[in-house]
Design brief:
By secondary structure, this protein is mainly alpha-helical. The protein folds into 2 domains: about 40-70; about 75-135. Helices cover about 75% and strands about 0% of the residues. It has 4 helices and no strands. It has helices spanning about 5-15, 40-50, 55-70, 75-135. α2 (about 40-50) packs across α3 (about 55-70). The longest helix is centred in the C-terminal third of the chain and has 59 residues, at about 75-135. It is flat and about 75 Å long. About 0% of the residues are buried.
């Protein structure tokens, strides 16, 4: 029969049996437990990205905030204060968005035509090559 261990001996045994990376003063609580201060997975990658690119994170947060603000209805006070400026700004933004959509559509159409021409040429070449081998 073994003798009961003192508190200091118990801590020493826990430190020796703790998995790598566990906090030295916290004994392991079984398989699957980890240091709560450690981050992993998506959260860890997000934190690493924000640390590496803080300006990008700020710009992203501003874009999300602007999107949310755009979805909220305008108030009477906002309409009174902003008035024509808001209308003009909205028109300019709408025109810019329309221009971007038109440019994107033209780009996609050009790429689609190029791709179809490439595929069509390849099909024609394959049919011609297949026809040459069957003749004769």
């Amino acid at each position: 029969m073994s003798e009961p261990k003192s508190g200091e001996q118990t801590k020493a045994v826990a430190r020796k049996s703790a998995p790598a990376g566990a906090h030295p003063s916290t004994p392991s609580q079984g398989k699957g437990t980890r240091d709560p201060r450690a981050t992993s997975g998506r959260l860890g990658r997000a934190i690493d990205h924000v640390s590496a690119h803080p300006l990008t994170a700020v710009a992203g947060a501003m874009a999300v905030s602007a999107g949310i603000a755009f979805l909220l209805p305008t108030t009477k006070r906002e309409t009174e204060v902003m008035g024509e400026v808001a209308d003009t700004l909205g028109d300019v933004a709408r025109d810019a968005a329309d221009g971007v959509v038109a440019a994107g559509r033209a780009q996609v159409e050009g790429l689609a035509q190029t791709a179809l021409a490439g595929v069509g040429g390849a099909v024609l070449q394959a049919v011609t090559a297949n026809g040459d081998t069957n003749v004769g």
